[in-house]
Amino acid sequence: MNWVAWQMLTGDRAKYWGTIFGIAFGTLLISQQTALFVGLMRRTANQIDGVREATIWVMDRDVQNTDEIRPLSESDVFRVRGVPGVSWAVRYYKGLARAKVSDGRFRQVMLMGVDETTLVGAPAEMLLGSLADLSRPDGIIIDLAGFEYLWPGVEPRLGQKLEMNDRRAVVVGVCKAGAPFQTFPLVFTRYTRALEFAPPERNRLSFVLARSEAGRDVGQVCAAIDGQTGLLALSRDKFFWRTIGYYLRSTGIPVNFGITIALGFIVGTAIAGQTFYLFTLENLRQFGALKAMGLTNGRLVLMILLQASIVGSVGFGLGMGMTAAFFETTKNVTHLAGFFLPWQVAVGTAAAVALIVVLASLVSIRRVLVLEPAIVFRGAL
Amino acid sequence: MIATYDNATPSGAGTTAMAVQCHGVDKDFGDGDTRIQVLHAVDLAVPSGELSLLVGPSGCGKTTLISIIAGLLDPTAGDVSLFGTSRSRLSERELIEYRAVNIGFVFQQYDLLPALSATANVAIPLLIARVPRTTAFARAGEMLDEVGLADRADAFPAQLSGGEQQRVAIARALVHEPRLLVCDEPTAALDARSGQTVLELLRRVAVQPDRAVIVVTHDNRIFGYGDRIMEMADGRIQRVRVRDGHAAVAPEEFPGFDPPDAPESQQP
Asked: Under an 8 A CB cutoff, do B101 and A294 touch?
């Protein structure tokens, strides 16, 4: 009877495609919006994720995320180095600076000062130039999106100049780096030079980046740093999620995305459910005839579930295809780079679509289960 | 030539092997103040090898009785036996299986699946019985040939006339060779000519020595095709008359009964 179920389903083209459209629409909204949301949240912590060498971030106890910084004393790096279990610890500057390009335009940039000798915190992937060029006078490395933002229409190249805090900076490298939440250009330079570009403050050390000794538990080393220095030491993962948690709690982003995702689910369920139910209603007499002819409720339910699974699978495939096409199209757009469809989102969307299909078919199944086969004898008895 | 009929006892006791026997069948709908008794202690017997007509005015309980006989409704009281098997001894599942194997249905509105071709529609009872699709389709093709629709095998219901659809429905009802064929107002949606064709087909194809055919109708144009006429009124069997060579009761005495001249070949 599976063949009959398939024929019944595809025989009514309008409802077949209507149900598929509902599911595809729901899939597109759920997967695309969730992936965008995940991408956006990742951006809030990209600067943590980008520093692969350090396993421990040390900061003031009040710090809640990477963008809200209370500077430490310069000597704090030595105190961290003195904690047992710490393999190494270096200074790291992170702050906002105002950059002026040669034609007089101003742009806010995110300035990162990396350790002078180890270059811990420097970008991992260079597109032009090399990290070693940071030792050149006034040398800075800028991310590709930042370059295009500061010099629109100019092919990425070395030697471009800008000013920060009345000091000259020369682009000695263009890198690929995870975009920040605020979309500001990322400027990497050596720590001491970053302090020259940054506005004057008494304390200016943003973070101490450290690594635990091999074989030592990172959590225990963090606890030791906490206890010995009075500062807050977090593993990279903890600081990553602490930052994301801050934006989840403190902004309306989750609510807005949540509403869109919920709408996708509700509209998808409503369209698919209503169309599928109409399909069942219109075939009710035929279902009654099949029951009269000896088809059991169990096999009827299997027929309906098969029909629902078919429209669910096709709808999911189309919707996911549209989402994939969106990210495939935008992946080469610099300012949208970094947004992608994580497999976890695809799996979650599949689960949501499965739920939509179940909800859509439940009403139909119930209607068919309570259907008296005697209905085929001229309607109500 | 006008068919003639004899009176018979409703229970049919003492006659040929009975396909259907109803004993004291009651049927109520609703509860309390809204309770309506539709059938009142119905006793009835339908033998194999005959085309029996269940006739009566609208609302007299024909459809309810036929639904109970076909195992689609449970009686409130009494019992129904089909070919010696008591309905009350069958579980719900056994009843469904029994129905699938032993009963064929022809509905007033044909109830063909619009998305399926005539062949596929006819094959449905075999597919329900889990017969392989190729085998089922081959048998369905033969059945369509038998009802004279071999050249319309690939047509969909919407492409068929009402008479053709009903012939497809008859082929569907007979394809699995059931022992009881139940037809509910098979001519109600058809014009006189098509209705006559359908009844001729039923007599030619469906009536077999080991098969009983029950036709529910109030279409007096087809009364002449019945071997047995069971008249219902107010939820009771009022009278049963059997056609034989010597008429005990003239058909004209049957209320509203005006049988057409049936062709000679149609007379049993």
From this structure: yes
| Pairs of residues, one from chain A and one from chain B, whose beta carbons lie less than 8 Å apart | 91
pTM of the model: 0.74
Residue A206 CA to residue A328 CA, distance in Å, equals: 37
For residue A297, give how far its alpha carbon lies from the nearest alpha carbon of chain B (Å). Answer: 10
B105, A376: Cβ pair inside 8 Å? yes
Instruction: Provide the H-helix boundaries in A13-65.
Output: 13-44, 46-49
**CA of A283 vs chain B CAs: smallest distance (Å):** 8
Residue A242 counted as domain residue: no
Q: Please report whether residue A167 resides in a domain.
A: yes
Do A77 and A220 share a domain, yes or no? yes
A260 and A184 in a common domain: no
List the single residue in A8, A293, A299 with the smallest CB-CB distance to B125: A293
Same domain, A195 and A301: no
Contact residues on chain B for A372, CB-CB shorter than 8 A: 72-73
* Closest CB to A377 among B66, B128, B129: B66
Nearest CA in chain B to A6: B115
CA gyration radius for chain B? 18
Final residue belonging to a domain, choices A199, A230, A261: A230
Last residue of a domain, one of A184, A200, A230: A230
Residue B116 forms contact with A (CB below 8 Å): yes
Token pair for residue B25? 């069948």
What is the least distance, in Å, from the CA of B74 to any CA of chain A? Answer: 11
Q: List the single best residue of B63, B72, B90, B110 to mutate versus A (max A Cβ within 10 A).
A: B72
Chain B contacts of A298, Cβ < 8 Å? none
Question: How many CB atoms sit inside 10 A of residue A238's CB?
Answer: 16
Per-residue pLDDT of chain A (381 residues; tens, 9 = 90+): 888 988 888 888 888 888 888 889 888 988 998 899 888 888 888 888 888 889 999 999 999 888 888 999 989 999 999 999 999 999 999 999 999 988 888 889 999 999 988 999 999 899 999 999 998 889 999 999 899 889 988 999 999 999 998 899 999 999 988 888 888 899 999 999 999 998 888 888 999 999 999 989 999 999 999 999 999 999 999 999 999 999 988 888 888 888 888 888 888 778 877 888 888 888 888 888 888 888 888 998 999 889 889 989 999 999 999 999 999 888 877 777 778 889 999 999 899 888 888 887 888 888 888 888 877 775 433
What is the layout of strands, in order, in the sheet containing B5-8? B5-8, B236-243, B228-233, B51-55, B212-217, B180-184, B103-106
Could you tell me if residue A60 is inside a domain?
A: no
**Phi and psi, residue B267, nearest 5°:** -75, 135
Strands A186-190 and A232-235: unpaired
Rounded-to-integer distance, Cα A210 and Cα B89, Å: 82
Same domain, A335 and A198: no
